[in-house]
Design a protein that fits this description.
elongated; mainly alpha
């Protein structure tokens, strides 16, 4: 296994270790802690740059970093209108960076999958007659979507 493959996989290894704690914390506390998310984001960002610069994939570098940055800007706007939490914005940005090192456009599939899973969760909450204003933790759905994208598309990378 070439060194670049190992470097590219580091954020996903970190994510595999952090998945269970993130799900538990987000489910219980409705937050994704910075002490887990920010190192993951930094690792994913550095990995995206190193892997694409080493292979001189300049277009891929632009997409692998540009698309998550664009999402981050959109996420800040959505957060301003209380549509999504800032932890979810940071976490999704990091997920897009981590998966985008392999395929930036495939990484974008995480967003609609997460929306679909979250909508299903919201319908479930409504059917259980939970009080209005109850929030649904998005982190577990982000993780499910990410791991689904990785499982389905990793053989093509």
């Amino acid at each position: 296994m070439p060194i670049l493959d190992i470097i590219s996989a580091l954020p996903l290894v970190y994510l595999a270790v952090a998945t269970i704690p993130l799900v538990v914390i987000d489910y219980k506390e409705h937050r994704l802690p910075n002490k887990i998310v920010l190192p993951f984001a930094a690792l994913a960002f550095i990995t995206a740059i190193v892997a694409n610069v080493a292979t001189q994939s300049w277009g891929n570098l632009l997409l692998a970093v540009g698309l998550p940055f664009a999402w981050f800007i959109i996420g800040i706007v959505l957060n301003y209108f209380d549509t999504i939490g800032m932890g979810d914005v940071k976490f999704l940005t990091a997920l897009l960076l981590a998966v985008g090192v392999y395929s930036p456009l495939t990484a974008l599939l995480i967003i609609p999958l997460t929306v679909l899973f979250a909508l299903i969760a919201i319908v479930y909450v409504i059917m259980r007659k939970v009080p209005v204003g109850t929030s649904v933790p998005l982190g577990p759905w982000l993780l499910l979507s990410t791991w689904l994208v990785v499982a389905v598309f990793s053989s093509a990378w």
